[in-house]
Amino acid sequence: MTTTDPAQTTKYVFDFSEGDKDQKDLLGGKGANLAEMVRLGLPVPPGFTISTGACRAYLEAGTVPAGLDDQVAAHLATLEETRGKKLGDPDDPLLVSVRSGAKFSMPGMMETVLNIGLNDASVHGLAAQSDNPRFAWDSYRRLIQMFGKTVQHIDGERFEHALEELKERKGVHGDLDLDAADLEELVGAFREIVREHTGSDFPQDPREQLAAAIDAVFSSWNSDRAVLYRRQERIPNELGTAVNVVAMVFGNTGPDSGTGVCFTRDPATGAQGVYGDYLQNAQGEDVVAGIRNTVPLAQLEEIDKVSYDELLRIMALLEGHYRDLCDIEFTIERGTLWMLQTRVGKRTAAAAFRIATQLVDEGLIDADEAVRRVSGAQLVQLMFPRFDTSPGSAGEKAQVLGRGMSASPGAAVGKAVFDSYTAVKWSRSGEKVILVRRETNPDDLNGMIAAEGILTSRGGKTSHAAVVARGMGKTCVCGAEELNVDTKRRRLTAPDGTVIDEGDVISVDGSSGLVYAGEVPVMAPPVVEYFEGALDADAAEADDLVRAVDRVMARADEVRRLRVRANADTVADAERARRFGGEGIGLCRTEHMFLGERRQHVERLILAEDDEARAQALDALLPLQRWDFLQILTAMDGLPTTIRLLDPPLHEFLPNITELSVRVALAESRGEANENDLRLMQAVHSLHEQNPMLGLRGVRLGLVVPGLFDLQVRAIAEATAQLIKMGRDPQPEIMIPLVGSVQELEIIRADSLKVLAEVAEQTGVDFPALIGTMIELPRAAMTAGQIAEAAEFFSFGTNDLTQTTWGFSRDDVEAAFFSTYLEMGIFGVSPFETLDVEGVGELVKIGTERGRATRPDLKVGVCGEHGGDPDSVHFFHKVGLDYVSCSPFRIPVARLEAGRVALVDQLAEGGAGADSR
Ligand code: ADP
Ligand code: MG
Ligand code: MG
């Protein structure tokens, strides 16, 4: 310990009049916004904010930093002067609230304690002063309750029980039916609970109450829930929380007082109007706690017209000032309005788009800001199929069984089954099923794959069911605790007693978390119809949401630098990709082109013992492949189409070993062994791999199976030449998968160039065809400088690159332990959903830099699923890729996010007060 502690001179405490909304780092969100309201001259009860720096110092030293107590005392003295009351004055006490408030609002932080400063003496002073003993005792019992629960960590139910017991004894229902004497009695009971739990009396010294509450806020920064949340959300542990100390204003003094919350627009739809709830004679969280029925805000006009008009004026002012929807807390004390909190409010996806464009029309923000204000995640919400329960629809009367967490969006209908075995069995026979479990575990994987949707009664958003379902893109509602799932008796019981037996149809809405009995009709949302081209944004029947999406997308397209392509293997997907705004195909897989009837040719190819047999098999495949490419290149006329040569291990094209063994055994028992089957069996055995993912696949296949890649290249070349002759504009790009060294690529490249030259010669058509490679092995990224010598483009296959970088086999790990990893906070989101920027992303960066160092005009893209993930798109923009490629349905999301990141980038460069959320 040094004697000249620098902390002595650090300013830790700021009056509300000293800050503004941009000081969230120092004052936390709540404090910065309270200061802003003071700056605007709004009626905010006086108070001060203890900075996040004080919290950091406290957490570091384990004790309150030097100087803090003095600064708090000084600000308290000013507060006492302003209010003309003293903390702890037995005759006329000043009361305050202590409220946590970090930069980001966060679960696990200490809940607010109101009425600090009351004790056995001052409660009488307050009663006399206000001429309202009921109010005084009500405030005191609330203090003990909140302080006991949040500062002293006493189980809140103890207090709830005591309150219930009293009401029962008095034969009353509502808290308003308790009079002063009742509440005084309750205070006695509460104090007894405190004594029992802590071994000492409820602290009577108001300064001790205040100091303990401040300490508790600081400590709550490191509560388990807060730590876990920060680990998952990657919020730095160093930020710390601020503490706000605010003079109390009272909504619980009688019917001319009350408390409320309001929004400047409807957070559900974005519509303009008066939205909020008000509760007379109430304090703090009463209004949202559901203890009594609130009234809609509009009714405040009848209750207290003056306050109502004033509130509406302030709402308009705040919205104009923040240029956004604001969420507001207020209290009315005997006809005087007080503002207790404001912040930019949360909203639904539809509201976000509508509000952003409304604000443009009102001249509050420009078109660029509108794009920044919405997100790809919100656009996704608008694109999921949903149940049609609108008035007049067949689904209007759908019976809701219950609600759980929206774990993985979508709308699924099927027969309820209660174990995975049944799910698989029924789905094999063509039934649609919903897998209903209390919770799932790795053994349920096959059942989850077979099901249309998954419903569990336990577990949160990182439970096994939720994680695996999201990974599969499958609809899931989890943690529907009100539904009683009995897997033994194969039934589900809703709270209203409705029983769903195995085989009964249910409908599961993964976006809202609602579960319905029976089949609810599904509809394509209007936003999808718009992207499909079936609904014109300017048409009369298009609603304002579609128009808003159209405007935002148009602006995003204007400003984005990243191109967006699709991963599409079929003509149908290619056409949809074009409709959705795709600018080419970034990944056309060819494996499905070797399945079905063509499998026999592949078998012949694998079994070929000499060049002639091999040539025959390839000759049979050539026209089929050419036809495939003719179709795809026609669908993508004028746009680049990246065709990936065959990638999966060969055994995937051979019959299943068990089936084959049975066939051979049966044939042998009949004494009629089939020569071909025997050879097939041998081939399957010799191709068997311990780790197919790391085995003979990709470029390795092209090198080991003579003629295979040549066949594909020839088919591409011939199709291209033919289309050019027809006056079309095919733009094929030939992509070699799983390259790890430039030597591999050099060999394939030389062969391919030879084939291309031959076809050019034969057809007399000279056509361009880029040859490039996927970068999906760490070694490829590290040696990208060499590989670029033989590649005209790179495409990062981030699915495999994630697998090979982490050493994860996705199919195995997601079901086996990802939920545990998420719960432990090892990652906040699966690296298969959002690119692991620090690891895999670094390889993308290195690969791009080294590749372009060798070949400055190297085209670089990405074709993993990450190409349609918002955060990942931002990263790819920053690394300077040319395009992302994603599933057709994700194209709008990628377009939007590519526009957003370009705009956020501009702001950052311009250095303007960037407000990028
Ligand atoms: P949260 O962050 O959970 O909303 P708040 O600090 O806003 O917590 O407070 C909880 C409740 O107490 C809110 O309804 C708020 O308006 C109310 N409240 C906070 N401080 C005061 C005060 N000084 N006077 C009256 N009510 C208050
Ligand atoms: Mg709250
Ligand atoms: Mg609040």
From TrEMBL:
Recorded catalytic activity of this chain's protein: pyruvate + phosphate + ATP = phosphoenolpyruvate + AMP + diphosphate + H(+)
Q: What are its cofactors? A: Mg(2+)
GO terms (molecular function) for this protein are:
pyruvate, phosphate dikinase activity
Can you tell which superkingdom this protein's organism belongs to? Answer: Bacteria
Fetch the Pfam families from UniProt.
PEP-utilizers, PEP-utilizers_C, PPDK_N
Domain annotation Pyruvate phosphate dikinase AMP/ATP-binding: ranges: 68-293, 301-353
Q: Which UniProt keywords apply?
A: ATP-binding, Kinase, Magnesium, Metal-binding, Nucleotide-binding, Pyruvate, Transferase
Q: Which organism is it from?
A: Pseudonocardia charpentierae
- The residue ranges of the PEP-utilising enzyme mobile domain are 431-513
The UniProt entry, under PROSITE patterns, shows:
PEP_ENZYMES_PHOS_SITE
Give start and end of each PEP-utilising enzyme C-terminal domain: 548-899
Q: If you read the UniProt record, what top EC class would you report for this enzyme, in one word?
A: transferase
What family does this chain come from, according to its entry? Belongs to the PEP-utilizing enzyme family.
Write the Enzyme Commission number(s) for this entry.
Answer: 2.7.9.1
Q: What is this protein called?
A: Pyruvate, phosphate dikinase
- What's the name of its gene? ppdK
Q: What is the lineage of its organism?
A: Bacteria, Bacillati, Actinomycetota, Actinomycetes, Pseudonocardiales
